[in-house]
């Protein structure tokens, strides 16, 4: 039997050298025809702008009608690699009844200008917000003695947990309830202005972070009634807790209805107990305003007391939409997240009724600062350099730390020269460079921008 066959001679056979020696691996298409043109090429990533552009079709984990939120609510957008951002949006349905998510705003971070999220994208809502801390239930503090003035007790565990609360002085609420004879007494910031017989108490912290509960003397607040073990406290202790995203994956103990747990976003707002110096500064600040804001400086003081805020700048601005003046505040908040909404609510509790307040997170202009010094040979070089570093980067007093940065305005190089020359053992400054380039005489900062210089690696 004769089988017709074609023999092909490939002039470009050398191209296949080293790729395959098996002719069975070679496929040849002949007389191919145009089938069409791809109108939209599939992509592996999506940008925040893409998400905001139009409602996105979604597959619901529980396909029930009415599951989508009808009003604007808090979302977390999370990509396939665990990258996540906060957002606001709502659920909608197309004309065929298919579910969609309409995202109206996304909270971006510094450096997100070219952010690309890897598909598939997960939209989560109805999330539970939690705070760090362990609970102590009904700890017996001791026995009341009506013969004693300003009787005090100490909590067994420390440090006491505080959480953000825009309704209380300082914007932080102690997680503590004190019961006397089974009735909860009210906590006050001080006994100033308290009437005789009022069932209140105040708390103080010592240098070891222990918490002391103090009662009145009969004139400034009621004395404790005499009783055996009749003073009891329920509280939470533990601070910090700013864990990274995707690091919580288990429960301490089972919770009915909860199958798994994870944190798509990093924790924010946690702080270690203040040092003695920080506590002193906070005490001074707290006496300046006394729960009533009357000036721009007061706005700056109270905004700076908010958890995680290192500094603030306030100015008068014009709100064209409301046709009235408003207070515009920029806050230095290096952590992930934005406290603006909660901070506005807090400040409005102390400002004149009707005051328009705007709060925004200031943006850092970063840079690595390299300093070359001429030192007096009579001094120990390492000690002089350490003193210069402290003058510039001490947590509270350093010239260049965010806590002391100015938002907007002009930073003058001469200010830096002066701070360095005040250190004994420094004869001169040979050079100042930011990111390898000579530092200019003046650095002009935009409104809402602050200078964040860190030491260059040597």
Q: What can you see in these coordinates?
A:
The chain has six helices and 25 strands. The protein is of the alpha+beta class and 458 residues long. α2 (276-289) runs antiparallel to α3. It is extended and about 125 Å long.
Q: CATH superfamily membership of the largest domain, which one?
A: Golgi alpha-mannosidase II
The residue-averaged pLDDT reads: 88
Helix/sheet category: alpha+beta
What are the low-pLDDT stretches, counting only 5+ consecutive residues below 50?
Answer: none
Major β-sheet strand ordering: 2-5-4-3-7
Topology, number of strands: 25
CATH class assignment of the largest domain = Mainly Beta
Tally of helical runs: 6
CATH topology of the largest domain: Immunoglobulin-like
The first-to-last residue Cα distance is 84 Å
- Shape, please? extended
**How many individual domains?**
4
Cα Rg: 31 Å
Give the oligomeric state: single chain
Largest sheet: 5 strands, antiparallel
- Estimate what percentage of residues fall within beta strands: 25-35%
Approximately how much helix is present in the residues? 10-25%
Architecture (CATH level 2) name of the largest domain: Sandwich
């Amino acid at each position: 039997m004769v089988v017709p066959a074609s023999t092909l001679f490939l002039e470009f056979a050398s191209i296949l050298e080293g790729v395959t020696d098996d002719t069975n691996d070679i496929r040849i298409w002949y007389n191919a025809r145009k089938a069409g043109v791809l109108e939209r090429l599939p992509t592996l990533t999506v940008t925040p702008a893409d998400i905001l552009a139009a409602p996105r079709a979604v597959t619901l984990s529980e396909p029930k009608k009415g599951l989508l939120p009808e009003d604007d609510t808090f979302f977390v957008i999370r990509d396939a690699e665990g990258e996540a951002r906060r957002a606001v949006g709502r659920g909608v349905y197309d004309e065929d009844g298919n579910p969609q998510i309409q995202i109206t705003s996304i909270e971006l971070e510094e450096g997100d200008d070219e952010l690309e999220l890897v598909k598939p994208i997960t939209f989560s809502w109805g999330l539970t917000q939690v705070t760090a801390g362990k609970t102590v239930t009904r700890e017996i503090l001791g026995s009341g003695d009506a013969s004693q003035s300003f009787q005090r007790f100490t909590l067994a565990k420390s440090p006491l947990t505080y959480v953000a609360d825009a309704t209380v002085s300082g914007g932080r609420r102690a997680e503590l309830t004190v019961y006397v004879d089974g009735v909860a007494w009210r906590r006050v910031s001080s006994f100033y202005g308290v009437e005789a017989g009022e069932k209140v108490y105040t708390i103080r912290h010592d240098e070891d972070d222990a918490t002391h509960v103090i009662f009145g003397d009969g004139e400034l607040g009621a004395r404790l009634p005499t009783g055996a073990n009749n003073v009891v406290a329920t509280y939470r202790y533990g601070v910090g807790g700013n864990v990274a995203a995707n690091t919580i994956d288990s429960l301490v103990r089972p919770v009915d209805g909860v199958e798994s747990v994870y944190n798509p976003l990093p924790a924010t707002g946690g702080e270690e107990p203040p040092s003695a110096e920080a506590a002193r500064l906070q005490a001074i600040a707290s006496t300046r305003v006394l729960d009533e804001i009357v000036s721009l400086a007061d706005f700056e003081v109270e905004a700076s007391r908010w958890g995680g805020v290192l500094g603030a700048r306030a100015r008068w601005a014009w709100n064209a939409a409301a046709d009235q003046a408003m207070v515009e505040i920029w806050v230095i908040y290096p952590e992930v997240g934005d406290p603006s909404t909660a901070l506005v609510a807090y400040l409005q509790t102390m400002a004149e009724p009707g005051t328009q307040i705007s709060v925004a997170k200031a943006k850092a202009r970063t840079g690595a600062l390299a300093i070359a010094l001429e030192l007096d040979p009579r001094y120990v070089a390492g000690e002089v350099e350490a003193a210069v570093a402290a003058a510039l980067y001490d947590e509270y007093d350093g010239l260049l730390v965010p806590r002391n940065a100015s938002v907007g305005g002009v930073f003058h190089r001469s200010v830096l020269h002066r701070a360095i020359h005040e250190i004994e053992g420094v004869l001169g400054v040979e050079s100042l460079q930011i990111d390898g380039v000579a530092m200019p005489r003046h650095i002009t900062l935009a409104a809402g921008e602050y200078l964040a210089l860190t030491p260059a690696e040597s």
